[in-house]
Each structure stands twice: as structure tokens, then as C-alpha cells.
Automatic annotation (TrEMBL):
InterPro entries cross-referenced by the UniProt entry: AMP-bd_C, AMP-bd_C_sf, AMP-dep_synth/lig_dom, ANL_N_sf
Family assignment from sequence similarity: Belongs to the ATP-dependent AMP-binding enzyme family.
Span of domain AMP-dependent synthetase/ligase: 12-371
Any single GO BP term: fatty acid metabolic process
Lineage: Bacteria, Pseudomonadati, Pseudomonadota, Betaproteobacteria, Burkholderiales
Domain AMP-binding enzyme C-terminal, first and last residues per copy: 426-501
Keyword Ligase among record annotations: yes
Name recorded for this polypeptide: Acyl-CoA synthetase
Length: 520
């Protein structure tokens, strides 16, 4: 496709395949022609409110179709779509709206309780996607009054297209600004890596406020294929949908794969049309991955990425998954137009193959800036920007070996015990091999002699028992003794985000309270 941006893609698909279904969500289906027409209407409606180039328009919704409407309507007038995490508190939502200076909010009625008087005091205009709310007009009835002709505008590849806020687990949410060029490149390299074709059917079950969920909205428009969207992830019904809705490709986070595997096997379910399960977003253990490969009998592809690199950096291909078990712990090789370096996080010198350091990334997908945070932007681009995107400090620890990236942990999660660097992810992979453990994490806690010592936090499977000594001995049989847990805490659950990422800061907090030095 010769498109210069995603609006070109949408318009070309609407012209070539106008009646082809683009999105299906429950009983609602929208064709390419309908999406093109309705986004024209919404773009003109937003213009009538004074929304112009680079203005932010906020979205607080689970609806993939309404989200796509807003994102593409914003692109058509050069404005910037801004999906907000619907798990944010009232204070966090208010901060995001104020920080971005958004003057329009599209929202599901179930989230209206996240908006208080202070959020609307600056004249915020609110439209709902559903229901009947006496104070706010519905989106569909509002846009119906406007022209369905494309508004005149000029899109520039280097201008902002999407604005996504972090989860805010370590302070105020931070806005990541991605350009039209970044998003188009992400569509190009990922759809090729996954083997998406116009007849493919893409399943969408990841929240839209995550870069992964956002990309899944864009891929069908870029490729011209259909997307079956799910408002919520319900394991049993999702398995049934994989069987009866001809879904060929789907992206899942590891926590979702765990939930699917926990469902009883059903011989009536047919996954023969399922070609590929892509996964990423958080670490996956080898036992879980092996079980999933056996259960679904399809190709698997791991994507490593960050919001700051439009979600995609490396890919562990289906062929890699079949080559050798050792590769299953790798994040894969760099995608096209992507370069990696491993750098000592203290001295900033480049390290050799096999040495663990911070992963630095240069690609044409690198983010433009942290919104209104020039110092933070400069910190992660220590060498500045260049024509190839600039070298971005990911904050992830890992090493390169034979062209493959192996991730160790977040740099901030590294445990330093007696001057030895210990990366929890390595130990967690071993921890999860114990048959009695359902979930587990490794953290560093204060130690008066070693500075930090290793602690395991585990959740046992129902009906099993395991003592602290038994687990420590199990670990000592498989990894170097200096890395092994010195203590174990048994919990009923581990704190995680909606995408399944472990909130280690919450696990560590009780142990570091009152300490002169606390790690985050």
C-alpha cells in the first residue's frame, strides 16, 4: 500500500472494499465505508467546537469502535486522540485532563463517576458513547448533524497523532506522544511479522489505553482485514469466540493466557482456524508458554516493546519458537528499521554480547516527547535525537546473544546484594517451575549485612502446601546460591495492573518503609 499515513489507508480501503466489515463488537458491525463516513462527521463536529491541529481530545471508553472513530476523526483534522486508562482514579483522570489541556471528552456512561466538578470547571465538553444521560449528549446523535465530507487538512508525518499516559504507578501519569510516522511504521513491521492478510480476522481483547490495544485498532485499517472486538475479557466466552468467530490472529498478555489455560479443556471447541497467538506486555514463564503451544496448536509470536517505541521493538517468530527451548526466554530479534545497543547504565559504555546492561533502542517509531516534560525527554535521549530517531534508554535490563535480545528485568528492579547484581526475572522463571506455585515474584528487601537480600513472594495453587525451607532448597538446586531467596512470604494474591504487570513497588513498600534508602 502506498499510503503516507493511516488516513490514506482508511480512505483507500473504503474506496476499494466499502461494504467489507471492519469492526464487529457484539451485535454492532461497522464497514470500511461507514467508518470513513462517520469519522468525517465526527471530525467536522470536533472542528465546530474549535478543536484544531495538535489539540487533545480525550477518550474514556471500553468501546473499540467508538475509540477508532475518535482516533481517526482526530487524525483527519490534525488533532490528537488521547485514550485514558479507565482504571484511573478521579484525581488521576483530572490530572490527565488538565495536563493535556483537553477540552473534549468522549466517555462511556459507566465512567462518568470519574469526572468531578473540578475536571469540568475549565469548560470541558463531554459526550457519551452509550446510555441516556440527561446532562450529556450522546456521541452518535451529536455527530449525525454534521457533514460526512472529508474536512480540509494537511497531515505531517512528524506531528503528534496519539497521546498516551502511563499508569502512574510511580508518581503522576506521564504523557507519551507518538507521531503519524511512528504509528504507520508500527503497522508496517508488525502486520508483516504476524503474516496478516486482507482475509485475516483479528481478535481484540486488550484495553485501548495500552499501546498494544491501540495498535490492534490500527492494524485492520492498515491491512484491510476484519477485527472482532471484545469489550471485556471473559476466559470461557473468549475461548468460545476463538472457536466460532473464525479469529485467525490475536494478541494476549501472559496473564490472559494463564486464565485461558485454567479453563477446563473442551473437546467441542475448534481452534483450527487460529493461525497465530502473539503475546507480550509482561514476562511469561516457559511452562505456561509450552502449555499454551500444546493447547492451541498454532503459531506463537512474542513481541517486546514499549509505549515509547510505538509498542514494537523485537519479535520472536513462530520459527524461533520451534527451533530450541532456550530461545523461548528471548524477546526475539529487532524488527525492521530497529537497532539495539546494550549499555552500562552507570558508565554509559557499550557492552559486548552476553553482558547484561540497559537496552537502548533506535528506530523510526521512537516517541517524540514526554508531554511538557523536556527534562524527562532529554534524560532518555542522552545523545539527542537524529534522523533515525535517536537512541532511547528503555530502562530495561538485558543482553544480546547471536542477534537475539534476552531481557533480564527493569533496571530499577535489579537487586544489589553484596555487590552482586541479581535480576529477579531469571529467578521468577525458575520459581514458577515449582508445581505448587500459581504466581510468584522476587523482590529485594533491606539487609543489614548485604544491603539487600532476595525475598520470594508466592501464591500457592489451591490444595497444595509448601514450606519456606522447601522452596528455598528447590531454588538452590537450580540457581547459584547467592541469587537464591533468603526468605519467603506466602500471599493470597500479587498486586498487578489491568494488563497483568506486577506492581513490585507495592510488594517492596512495607519492607522499605522508614529506610534511609528505598528502591523503586
Amino acid at each position: 500500500m502506498s499510503a503516507q499515513n493511516l488516513i490514506d489507508c482508511l480512505m483507500q480501503q473504503a474506496e476499494q472494499s466499502p461494504q467489507t466489515a471492519l469492526f464487529t463488537a457484539g451485535l454492532r458491525t461497522v464497514s470500511f465505508a461507514e467508518m470513513n463516513r462517520q469519522t468525517n462527521q465526527l471530525a467536522n463536529a470536533l472542528k465546530s467546537l474549535g478543536v484544531g491541529p495538535q489539540d487533545r481530545v480525550a477518550l474514556l471508553s471500553k468501546s473499540q469502535i467508538d475509540s477508532a472513530l475518535l482516533i481517526f476523526a482526530c487524525m483527519k483534522i490534525g488533532a490528537v486522540g488521547m485514550p485514558i486508562n479507565w482504571r484511573f482514579s478521579v484525581d488521576e483522570v483530572r490530572f490527565v485532563l488538565e495536563d493535556s489541556d483537553a477540552h473534549v471528552l468522549i466517555i462511556d456512561t459507566e465512567f462518568l463517576d470519574r469526572i468531578d466538578a473540578r475536571s469540568t470547571s475549565s469548560g470541558l465538553r463531554i459526550f457519551t458513547t452509550d446510555g441516556a444521560d440527561p446532562e450529556h449528549q450522546r456521541l452518535d446523535s451529536w455527530l449525525a448533524a454534521f457533514s460526512d465530507q472529508l474536512p480540509a487538512t494537511t497531515l505531517e508525518a512528524h506531528r503528534a497523532a496519539i497521546h498516551i499516559y502511563s499508569s502512574g504507578t510511580t508518581g503522576q501519569p506521564k504523557g507519551v506522544v507518538l507521531t503519524h510516522k511512528s504509528l504507520l511504521s508500527a503497522c508496517q513491521v508488525t502486520t508483516e511479522a504476524w503474516g496478516l492478510e486482507p482475509h485475516s480476522v483479528l481478535g481484540h481483547v486488550v484495553p485501548i489505553f495500552h499501546i498494544a490495544g491501540l495498535l490492534i485498532l490500527l492494524f485492520p485499517v492498515y491491512m484491510g482485514c476484519r477485527c472482532v472486538a471484545f469489550r471485556d475479557f471473559k476466559p470461557a466466552s473468549f475461548l468460545a469466540a476463538l472457536s466460532n468467530q473464525s479469529i485467525s490472529h490475536v494478541l494476549l498478555v501472559p496473564a490472559m493466557i494463564n486464565f485461558l489455560l485454567a479453563e477446563p479443556a473442551d473437546t467441542d471447541l475448534d481452534f483450527s482456524q487460529l493461525k497465530l497467538i502473539a503475546y507480550g506486555g509482561s514476562p511469561i514463564t516457559e511452562p505456561v508458554l509450552q502449555a499454551a503451544m500444546q493447547r492451541f496448536n498454532c503459531d506463537f509470536s512474542q513481541i517486546y516493546g514499549l509505549t515509547e517505541v510505538a509498542g514494537v521493538v523485537t519479535n520472536l517468530t513462530p520459527e524461533d519458537h520451534r527451533k530450541a527451548a532456550g530461545l523461548l526466554r528471548s524477546g526475539g530479534r529487532p524488527l525492521p528499521r530497529t537497532e539495539l545497543r546494550i549499555v552500562d547504565p552507570v558508565t554509559l559504555t557499550e557492552l559486548e554480547d552476553g553482558q547484561v546492561g540497559e537496552v537502548w533502542i533506535r528506530s523510526d517509531r521512537n516517541f517524540h516527547e514526554y508531554w511538557q516534560k523536556p527534562e524527562a525527554t532529554q534524560e532518555v535521549y542522552p545523545e539527542g535525537r537524529d534522523a533515525l530517531g535517536g537512541w532511547f534508554r528503555s530502562g530495561d535490563a538485558g543482553y544480546l546473544l547471536n542477534g537475539y535480545l534476552f531481557l533480564s528485568d527493569r533496571i530499577k528492579d535489579m537487586i544489589i546484594s553484596g555487590a552482586e547484581n541479581i535480576y529477579p526475572a531469571e529467578l521468577e522463571n525458575t520459581l514458577m517451575k515449582h508445581p505448587a506455585i500459581a504466581d510468584g515474584a522476587i523482590i529485594g528487601v533491606p539487609d543489614p549485612v548485604w544491603g539487600e537480600s532476595v525475598k520470594a513472594c508466592v501464591v500457592l495453587r489451591p490444595g497444595t502446601t509448601l514450606s519456606e525451607d522447601e522452596l528455598i532448597n528447590f531454588m538452590r538446586e537450580q540457581v547459584a546460591h547467592f541469587k537464591c531467596p533468603k526468605s519467603v512470604e506466602f500471599l493470597t494474591s500479587l498486586p498487578r495492573t489491568e494488563s497483568g504487570k506486577l506492581l513490585k513497588r507495592q510488594l517492596r513498600a512495607p519492607y522499605w518503609a522508614g529506610q534511609e534508602r528505598a528502591i523503586n
